[in-house]
Amino acid sequence: MQVQQKTDSLIARELEEGERVLWTGRPVANRRATAPVTLTFMILTAVFGAIGLIMLILAIIFTTLLHTRGGADASLALYITGAVFLFMALIYGILAATIRPNLRGTVYAITDQRILSISAGKTLIVYSFTRNTIGVISRIERTDGSEDLTFAVPNRAGSYGYNNYGGYGNYGGYSGYGGGGYSVRNLAIAANAGKFINISDVREVERIVRRTFKEI
Question: Are 7 and 86 in a shared domain?
Fold first, then answer.
């Protein structure tokens, strides 16, 4: 009951006069979502790590087989370059592991005018998608029971936010992170804007979105 009251309260604060709520929901359980950018960082980790290891192996080979000044210089260059690539692989690996938003404070709503995605924490982040920003609708149903509905590209959303310390502002699309700045949490939330993550009865929610915003 308290969870539903909190959901209703968050949504009610965002509604315009006369705006009617058609559906509300929130992610089921506490599954941590994978941001699209996470896959990119994982690929970069693998690529930079592989290149770094190859360079270090070549450096060891050069050091072992070539006993000339030129061989020593080449080995040193390979050692340094390989170390840089491995360091970058480490950075990308850390980013891949951390850019995963916790969905505990996330609330979703469909009204007769727009779709809302609200993330409540130290900073309240709201993404608002109107009819002209809702694009191709796609549904994912997984064997583990988790279901996602994607309906927009994040950088086309209208978003705004304010923090608990009084800051307030209006922002456009992907760059709108409220008063919290470009934190890992905000980047991860922005990367997942434009979709409902791990919701119940995704097919019915898809029908509501199509009926409200796609049918003329």
Answer: no
Among the candidates 47, 80, 98, a domain finishes at 98
Neighbour order of strands in the sheet with 158-163? 21-25, 106-111, 114-119, 123-130, 158-163, 168-172
**Structural domain range at position 42:** 37-98
Q: Are residues 146 and 189 in the same domain?
A: yes
Confidence band for 140, pLDDT divided at 50, 70 and 90: confident
Residue 200 DSSP class: S
Condensed to tens digits (0 to 9), the pLDDT of residues 91-122 reads 988 888 776 656 778 889 999 999 998 888 77
Both structure tokens of 209: 């979105």
**17-to-61, 112, 159, 161, 213 alpha-carbon distances in Å:** 73, 12, 19, 19, 19
Q: Give the angle 66-50-45 at the CA atoms, nearest 5°.
A: 145
pTM of the prediction?
0.60
